[in-house]
Design brief:
The structure holds 2 protein chains of 2 kinds. Chain A is of the alpha/beta class. Chain A has 4 domains: about 180 residues, Pyruvate-ferredoxin oxidoreductase, PFOR, domain III (Pyruvate-ferredoxin Oxidoreductase, domain 3, 3-Layer(aba) Sandwich); about 180 residues, Rossmann fold (3-Layer(aba) Sandwich); about 70 residues, no CATH class; about 110 residues, Rossmann fold. Chain A has 18 helices and 23 strands. In chain A, the strands form 5 sheets. In chain A, strands 9-8-10-11-13-12-21 form a 7-stranded mixed β-sheet, with helices on both faces. In chain A, helix 7 runs parallel beside helix 8. The longest helix of chain A is centred in the first third of the chain and has 21 residues. Chain B has a single domain, classed as Rossmann fold (3-Layer(aba) Sandwich), CATH 3.40.50. In chain B, strands 2-1-3-4-6-5-8-7 form an 8-stranded mixed β-sheet, sandwiched between helices. In chain B, helix 5 packs antiparallel against helix 8. Chain B is globular and about 70 Å long. The model of chain B has no long low-confidence stretch (mean pLDDT about 95). Chains A and B meet through helix 1, strand 7, helix 7, helix 8 and helix 9 of A and strand 2, helix 2, helix 4 and helix 9 of B. Chain B: It comes from Candidatus Daviesbacteria bacterium GW2011_GWA2_40_9. Chain B: This is 2-oxoacid:ferredoxin oxidoreductase subunit beta. Chain B: InterPro entries: 2-oxoacid:Fd_oxidoreductase, OFOB, PFO_beta_C, THDP-binding, TPP_enzyme_TPP-bd.
């Protein structure tokens, strides 16, 4: 596949060499030069010594997903050359440790070689090899036609708090790499990062200004904008950076982050804070959510608002801790014993994560029940360009009081499932009770109380479906030969892929519970050919769709290796389906309109 | 408020130690003016937890073992509330042992009343972490092969700053102890010895009456060593009651700038300006 619109840089090195910080710096230079970016990071569950790579995709138009191929490989160590040389296409380039006339005998393609004495240039600045990544950044800018001044400005902002010597050393290292590349590779320079005319230095007041943000940052920003007052989060990949972010900014915004002893304490502390009147959240990955399952139902039966972020990685158990997965969908939809309204929202990228996290706080208060935001590692840790978030938001606490109400009944049945919520200290007597309870909260086993309270809680799901559930997003033409159905981080890669086809559309589902059954069923029944795309073994969304709508999507493109889908893979899949259906379309149709599945 | 129990008749067995504890707590509440404008109760699951249904004070009956993190969240969100935690020996030391250690360590300003009858009563009589060695129960018909934990020793080691023991058969003394615990600034643990008349035939009222004694004035409550020593004492006429340990230390809540002036719930979560924060992402 030709990929000229998107230029893909991959920086690799061992953990501790600053691969991620260099990659993010390059992404910001691209952003400030007017380009869009998408980054994808791979790393093992180690702090030092493991192999880290970051792919930075750069384009004048929005770029939404990672690619398999690389246009410029930046090897901070030899292992990167060995592992990733094959990803380079004919005409690609490679920056590697070397001097004049160094060659790469193992390269089988026609490549532009950029041997640079990275260690020596770093050591010459007096800061030993720590600055290799800055030397490489300078060289990348020289080769791609970027502006060194933009990088140096960013270095100044980044290390402002660490003092001038560090800024100076990094700037010198970047300068050394830049100068070396300009001098030695003058004839091989490109215009990939040449500043676009309409762009300039960053300023929030400029219209069309972009930001680079990943899912963890977007969720944290969404929580703060959404009125977060208390968060208790136990560290766990891939959501750990949410707690780092929230811990850092708590003084400024007046909320409290508390590190608990485990995920059980995390969710119970958050429930306690919410019961007392604070907007509360917790976050974890699948393993932590196993521990939280107990508290999940407690929040529901006590009608305590709560936002829970679940960031998926490959399971079960410790599984693939630093890789992505979408295998927790059915677990989250069914976690905890018994029936209660389960609200589960699954954003497809960082921007959706920002908007839905913020909305989740209002939903939790409106329905006085827990709301789960289900994301995956690829959303949590991939940086992407978006228009600067609009943070104007109306915090709505729902039916809540701190006044003393004569004859107050906390769990009175008003028809819509939601009663007036008083906080402790308001002078009202009530019990938030994990036992089934009556309208005051007193423990009961009476048939009438049980039926009333169970029905009251379940009514919330119907109210939410009626009042809040949006139509599913359909991208692409109404009329299509193929309809792709998916969720979560696959959104970006599918949108990148379907650009190459005229008659392929994509149904992106974000509200998984409640589920908009009639509308989704109609869409699916109209489709000529359905493909389900998911990062799990059994096709958990397809199974949910079958349960809710009766439509069985037979062609399921599934992946469990922890890696995201790449654009090339989806394009290949669509192409092969189109070829086969073109031959077979006239022959047989299944009763529900789905073309007989020949692919699997 | 002059009446705290006009809800329903307690469902505990006749003679249950919880009646004494219930009475002592109500006496303390009436004496000190703990009511629905200033206090909240939290309990775990077990016979102890039913107390919430018999006291007209706002409360949260949580999950088995999880009363402490729940109470912690409440206290952080509104530190002006008087937060009492009722928990049992199985609840606090079995299912919730990890939370007990860490709650003590953080010195939250909570009053923890640990009902200890050395038996799982609600599930009809199994050995708990405080049941003695060789104790026969439905889960240990051949005699308990495990040794009991010392709740107060654990509390002292974990960092609780007020550690005491009461006996549910002595209402005046227990009332006084609950008040002292609540007046202490920091994590207070009061272990309350109580008989289970149905399932534990060893720890009876006569047993406690014969074998307990009150720590005298010669006991130095500021000495961790002396407190440890007393916390490990258990035997014929050798079960101490009273305050074992009390020291002053900053509470968790007193160290947070965000709530230095007012409770968290009184700071509005609305209309936050994120523009400075967003600049970092451009």
């Amino acid at each position: 596949m030709s990929n000229k619109e998107v230029f893909s840089v991959k920086i690799g090195g061992q953990a501790g060499q600053g691969v991620k910080s260099a990659g993010l710096m390059l992404a910001k230079v691209a952003n400030r030069s007017g380009y869009h970016i998408f980054t994808y990071t791979e790393y093992p569950s180690l702090i030092r010594g493991g192999h880290n790579v970051m792919q930075i995709n750069i384009s004048p138009r929005p770029v939404l997903a990672p690619f398999k191929t690389t246009d410029l490989l930046v090897a901070l160590n030899k292992e990167t050359v060995d592992l990733h040389l094959e990803e380079l296409q004919d005409g690609g380039g490679i920056i590697f440790e070397g001097g004049d006339n160094s060659s790469l005998p193992q390269a089988s393609k026609n490549l532009n070689l950029y041997p640079i004495p990275l260690s020596k240039l770093a050591t010459d600045t007096g800061e030993k090899e720590l600055l290799i990544n800055s030397v490489a950044l300078g060289a990348i800018l020289a080769i791609l036609g970027g502006q060194l001044s933009t990088l140096q400005q960013l270095i100044g902002e980044e290390f402002a708090s660490k003092g001038n010597p560090i800024t100076l050393a990094n700037n010198q290292a970047a300068q050394a790499g830049y100068d070396y590349a300009v001098k030695n590779f003058a004839q091989k320079r490109e215009n990939i990062l040449k500043p676009l005319e309409e762009s300039g230095p960053a300023s929030l007041s400029r219209s069309g200004q972009k930001m680079i943000v990943n899912g963890n940052e977007a969720i944290s920003l969404g929580a703060i904008a959404g009125g977060l007052q208390f968060a208790s989060i136990y560290p766990m990949t891939p959501i750990t950076n949410i707690l780092h972010f929230l811990a850092l900014h708590q003084d400024k915004y007046g909320y409290i982050y508390k590190q608990p002893e485990d995920e059980i304490a995390a969710i119970n502390m958050a429930i306690g804070a919410s019961f007392a009147g604070a907007r509360a959240m917790t976050a974890t990955s699948g393993g932590g959510f196993c521990l939280m399952s107990e508290g999940y139902g407690l929040a529901a039966i006590t009608e305590t608002p709560l936002v829970i972020i679940e960031g998926m990685r490959g399971g079960p158990a410790t599984g693939l801790p630093t890789w992505s997965g979408q295998g927790d969908l059915q677990f989250v939809l069914h976690a905890h014993q018994g029936d209660f309204p389960r609200l589960v929202l699954a954003p497809g990228d960082a921007q959706e994560a920002f908007i839905l996290t913020r909305q989740a706080f209002n939903l939790a208060d409106k329905y006085q029940t827990p709301v789960v935001i289900l994301v995956d590692k690829n959303i949590c840790e991939s940086d992407q360009s978006f228009p600067v978030f609009d943070t104007a938001f109306e915090v709505n606490r729902g039916k809540m009081t701190r006044e003393t109400i004569p004859g107050y009944q906390r769990f009175a049945d008003n028809g819509d499932g939601v009663s007036l919520r008083a906080t402790p200290g308001s002078g009202n007597f009530f019990i938030a009770n994990s036992y089934e309870h009556d309208s005051l909260g007193l423990t009961t086993e009476r048939i009438n109380d049980r039926q009333t309270q169970m029905a009251k809680r379940m009514t919330k799901l119907e109210s939410c479906q009626r009042e809040d559930l949006p139509s599913p997003q359909l991208f692409g033409p109404e009329e299509a030969d193929i309809t792709i159905v998916s969720w979560g981080s696959n959104k970006g890669v599918i949108l990148e892929a379907v650009k190459h086809f005229d008659k392929v559309n994509f149904l992106h589902l974000t509200w998984l519970s409640p589920f908009l059954t009639p509308e989704i069923r109609k869409r699916l029944e109209q489709a000529r050919y359905l493909i389900d795309i998911e990062c799990n073994y059994s096709g958990q969304l397809a199974n949910l769709i079958k349960e809710k709508t009766g439509v069985d999507i037979l062609d399921r493109m599934l992946k469990v290796d922890g890696r995201p889908f790449f654009v090339e893979e989806i394009v290949e899949k669509i192409t092969s389906v189109l070829e086969v259906t073109a031959n077979k379309a006239s022959q047989s149709h299944l009763p529900n309109g789905q073309v007989e599945n020949i692919i699997n | 408020m002059d009446k705290l129990e006009d809800l329903q008749t307690p469902t505990w067995c006749p003679g249950c130690g919880n009646f004494g504890l219930w009475g002592a707590f109500k006496n303390a509440a009436l004496k000190k003016g703990w009511d629905n404008t200033n206090s909240v109760l939290v309990a775990g699951i077990g016979c102890h937890g039913n107390i919430l249904n018999f006291i007209r004070l706002t409360s949260f009956e949580g999950l088995h073992g999880r009363a402490l993190p729940l109470a912690t969240g409440i206290k952080i969100a509104n530190h002006r509330l008087n937060v009492f935690v009722f928990t049992g020996d199985g609840d606090c030391l079995g299912e919730g042992g990890n939370h007990f250690i860490h709650t003590c360590r953080r010195n939250h300003n909570l009053t923890v009343l640990l009902h200890n009858n050395a038996i799982y009563g609600l599930t009809t009589g199994q050995t708990t972490p405080t049941s003695p060695h060789s104790f026969k129960s439905k889960s240990t018909p051949q005699g308990n092969p495990d040794w009991p934990i010392s709740p107060l020793g654990l509390a002292i080691a974990s960092g609780a700053t007020f550690v005491a023991r009461g006996y549910s058969g002595n209402l005046p003394k227990l009332t006084e102890l609950i008040i002292q615990a609540n007046e202490h600034q920091g994590l207070s643990v009061v272990e309350i010895l109580q008989p289970c008349t149905t399932w534990n035939k060893e720890y009876t009222h006569p047993f406690f009456q014969e074998n307990t004694y009150f720590l005298g004035e010669n006991h130095d409550t500021s000495s961790k060593e002396a407190a440890f020593d007393k916390s490990l004492q258990w035997g014929v006429k050798q079960i101490p009651l009273g305050i074992f340990y009390q020291v002053e230390a900053p509470t968790f809540e007193s160290q947070l700038l965000q709530i230095a002036e007012k409770p968290l719930i009184e700071s509005s979560p609305k209309g936050r300006d994120l523009s400075e924060l967003l600049k970092k992402y451009t």
